[in-house]
């Protein structure tokens, strides 16, 4: 039986786990568990005894070695003390030497400086002599036409000139050397152009070395750019001239394909010649895009002139350019070690998007024209009232369909950079719609005056107009949320960005995605856009606040329109109350009727008609209030019925209308009563009866008469003796008029 005692050394030793493992390792079925356990205990005891023996032996050995260890420690301490004394002595010796030899060391330093200056002077004299020698031989070297020897001589002169910075004629020598370099460059230029045209690697590598040695490598890049730029420009010209029946969309698509192919082939070739192939080829494409003839802006302008929808046509062209930009971006990223951020990639991106900057600057004009055209095509008025109401309702979806398309266009065409322009265009668009809406309301008023229409049918139509106003408000709130979200998601992630330093392009993000730089020309326009984003991030409530206020005012106008329609019947019954003969007629009163009780009088026809009219209002509102109608609720919330208080919430629209009509009726009724010049005693009792009837109708409708109605009734009922007492806390105008009316 083999037992593993190494487990006892584990830090997380578990006795139960060890015992179970020991029993599991026992495979002999003939051995009982008790017998096996006894054997295990015996082995453990033997192991413990063995460990005890080892510990005892180690302890005895440690005790025996302890005196020797103590002696060795004492010896080490003595040696350390001796070493410390020796180091102190060495330090004192060093300080003494420094003190005694400081003047000598200073002299040595001065001598070393003199030696260095003499060496520099010697080198300068040698280089001056070398310059003179090279200058004397340079003409012969140029006559030899050996470009390698010429380049070597010019490099030697260049090195000499670096030593001769302080000579009086240094500038003249620099100018002379530059002229010699120009001569060499002129000699090489035909060969360089031929090498680049032939794509000769060996020749190009030789010229790179020569131009690099004479500090003219940028000039070599210019020769390279000129050669390939000429080829690309000729290809563009051929595409345009041979495909006259096509448009700039097809021209650019084909030319961009050729440029992208050039990118790959030239980067591969340049990587064997130049140190920064991506930069050099990117600069080639940038220069080509700027030198195209006819230019891209010219071709785009001609293309847009022939289109009825310039914005859609512009998006079509932009999509072609953006596909090319995306391809170039991907190609640059495949060669870049990290995220794109180089200046040459930013410059190339600017060149690709440059033709569209002027259109983004004029984006507001284009959007206004598109929206205005759409608005002019939306019918808002018809000959019949019912048809006008219907087309007003249908106009809402058409109105916002165009606005939502404008929102989508702004994202696709300007990547959010045109949102300030779009917001202004939308504001004008909706304000103009509001003006047309009000014009239709005015026309409807005139048609209603001229026609013989059922007032309740007109009321139903007016409620539909109010519902249309609610739909306008709901849609504009939805559009407002969409606009704010799009602005933050498109422009918000680009701003605020690192400010420009020295006019250099900001490279904080991938330059192909920095659309505020690519598409916005003026700094103040970028700052305005950044300010808008900042306000939205600080929880600016709305970007269409002006439109919301106008639509709310439109709802108020629609409510007034509907109120006037319904109230016209009440007005018709009440407008002649003050001139009725009953108030002054002697035959209406007299001795026979003066003492009759009030209940013997009946309300007059005018007031019963008003009461019956008020009682019918709820049933005509029922079709609009029995079903869920969020548009009507929103319209009522933002609109305001005459003679009602502004309130955030209300239980029933019908109650609000009843309150408005009743308050309007009471107000007009009171004004008409106060116009009565004089009234007989019997007429006073009749008027009180009329007022009581109206109060009862209001009570049936769950409403209360106004304070003015109550005061008039009180002053009509009271006796002459109690008049002053009853009128003590009432408005002076009311008291004065009633007093004069009753002849008190």
What would you say about this model in short?
With 744 residues, this protein is mainly alpha-helical. The protein is built from 27 helices and no strands.
Structural class: mainly alpha
- Topology pattern, helix = H, strand = E: HHHHHHHHHHHHHHHHHHHHHHHHHHH
- What average pLDDT do the residues reach? 83
Question: What Rg is obtained from the alpha carbons, in whole angstroms?
Answer: 51 Å
Give the fraction of residues assigned to helices.
Answer: over 70%
Low-confidence stretches: 497-507, 588-594
How far apart are the first and last residues' alpha carbons, in Å? 135 Å
Would you count the extended β strands for me? 0
The general outline is: extended
Please give the domain count: 4
| Main sheet makeup | none
Describe the protein in words.
This protein is mostly helical and 744 residues long. The chain has 4 domains: 6-117, no CATH class; 216-360; 362-550; 575-742, no CATH class. The chain is 75% helix and 0% strand. It contains 27 helices and no strands. It has helices at residues 15-24, 33-144, 147-163, 170-198, 201-213, 217-242, 248-270, 277-291, 296-305, 310-335, 343-353, 357-361, 363-376, 385-414, 419-450, 455-490, 515-519, 523-537, 545-574, 591-594, 605-625, 630-638, 653-673, 681-700, 707-717, 723-726, 732-742. Helix 7 (248-270) runs antiparallel to helix 8, helix 14 (385-414) runs antiparallel to helix 15 (419-450) and helix 16 runs antiparallel to helix 19. It is extended. Residues 497-507 and 588-594 have low confidence and may be disordered.
